[in-house]
Amino acid sequence: MSGHYGIKVGDAVQDFRIETYDPSKGDFGQISLAELREAKKWTVLFFYPADFTFV
Question: Mind spelling out the 3-state secondary structure of 4-48?
Fold first, then answer.
């Protein structure tokens, strides 16, 4: 299987903001990649291309 993918391991990622869920608080919130970088937090991005799709 061959193809061109837009991002590779180690590439820089543009800033984004996502909705999160904190089970310790039992509440939703938001976080941005810029906030994680500023706090010097490790960040791992992963994707499930077919997750939550009907078959």
Answer: CCCCCCCCCCCCCEEEEEECCCCEEEEEEHHHHHHCCCCCCCCCC
